From TrEMBL:
One of its GO terms (molecular function) is L-serine-pyruvate transaminase activity. Substrate binds at residue 330. This is Aminotransferase. InterPro entries: Aminotrans_V_dom, PyrdxlP-dep_Trfase, PyrdxlP-dep_Trfase_major, PyrdxlP-dep_Trfase_small, SP_NH2Trfase/AEP_transaminase. Residues 89-318 form the Aminotransferase class V domain. It comes from Geobacter pickeringii.
């Protein structure tokens, strides 16, 4: 039996989306693909509130996260680190042969505007990476405040991961001045994995043109050239792009502001459950993520046993990530999920907890 996913990505995929994935295949050099590509990128520009180029890459998010570093880091990069994915991005930056420094704060802490300002004020960097919503810790860093600081440093190209936040709240890419905004589709977009979306400002594209060693598969200049023809450098995951087309229609049908409100409401419901059951929060307010809650296992629940019990009842549960596995657990509230789904899931969790010590 397939388990119902209550993990922070991939998340449950709506049957309409699975049906869109079954659309008969087309060739990516056929006019039908150009129509699809043009429609999808126009929808993404509307959703992201950007006039920048929006590109579709056939890969998981880390493909583009690596690609962005290869394209946009000229002299030296600062990687802001506050969890597993941002720590890994620093490692990836170094593995690409780039000069890079990590500015680390404790897991559970946000990257604040002050932290960004202090690092950039050194004048050492021409690029920076930041994860808006650290999925490993459930921390959402304050993007508008950070964006205000970035305006002081026009020489710095900003590369921002919105992998687990894009579409769940307002992230107006141009207003925030994000040069390269990256996300995968298996989280708040609620599509199957395998497609990553990214934007590139004029500043980002100008930088890419001057940087050597961009490779081919994620060369931003190749993406720009092909996008001008509503196309991609290599054969894209056409079925997923059909799914994205359908999902954008569903998002605009729901209304983006309603979608943001639904995410806020689900977050508040889950936080209420966590507090009532006597668990703690790994993130402090106002930095708790709107798309997942990372709870501290302050009751000492046997999370491995809970996960097993939930699996037997048909639910996939997450018992923490990386070095905080077992000490924390994460409850997602993103994508096409509704409050009723969370009510159903948490009632089963309560039932299982009743059979466990602690
Ligand atoms: C914030 C964040 N960034 C990056 C990634 C990596 O994404 P992918 O596995 O799609 O490469 C994840 C995956 O969970 C994530 O949550």
């Amino acid at each position: 039996m397939a388990k119902k996913l209550f993990i922070p990505g991939p998340v449950e995929v709506h049957p309409d989306i699975l049906q869109a994935m079954a659309t008969p295949m087309i060739g990516h050099r056929m006019p039908e693909y150009a129509d699809l590509h043009g429609r999808v990128t126009a929808g993404l520009k509307r959703l992201l509130a950007t006039e920048s180029r929006v590109f579709l890459a056939t890969s998981s998010a880390f493909g583009v996260m690596e690609g962005a570093v290869r394209n946009l880091v000229g002299s030296r990069c600062v990687n802001f680190c506050n969890g597993a994915f941002s720590d890994k991005w620093h490692d990836v930056t170094k593995r690409c042969g780039k000069e890079a420094d990590a500015v680390k704060v404790e897991w559970g802490e946000p990257i604040t505007a002050e932290v960004v300002d202090r690092a950039l004020a050194t004048g050492k960097y021409d690029s920076m990476t930041l994860i808006h919503n650290e999925t490993s810790t459930g921390v959402m860093s304050p993007l508008p405040e950070i964006a205000a600081v970035l305006r002081k440093y026009p020489e710095v190209v900003s590369i921002i991961d919105t992998v687990s936040s894009m579409s769940a709240l307002s992230i107006p890419v141009d207003e925030l001045g994000i040069d390269c905004c990256i996300f995968g589709v298996q989280k708040a977009f609620a599509l199957p994995p395998g497609l990553a979306v990214f934007t590139a400002s004029e500043k980002a594209l100008s930088r890419a043109r001057t940087v050597e060693g961009r490779g081919y598969y994620f060369d931003f200049v190749e993406f720009e050239t092909n996008d001008a023809k509503n196309n991609t450098p290599s054969t894209p995951c056409i079925s997923l792009i059909y799914a994205l087309d359908r999902q954008l229609g569903r998002m605009f049908g729901e209304g983006v502001e309603q979608r943001w409100a639904r995410h806020r409401e689900m977050a508040s419901f889950v936080r209420g459950w966590v507090a009532e059951r006597g668990y703690g929060f790994f993130a402090a307010e106002p930095y708790r993520s709107v798309t997942l809650t990372c709870a501290v296992n302050s009751r000492g629940t046997d999370l491995a046993a809970l996960k097993k019990m939930l699996a037997e009842r048909g639910y996939a549960f997450d018992d923490g990530y990386g070095k905080i596995k077992g000490k924390t657990f994460r409850i997602p509230h993103m994508g096409d999920m509704r409050r009723q789904d969370l009510e159903e899931f948490l009632a089963v969790v309560d039932d299982c907890l009743g059979g466990l010590p602690g």
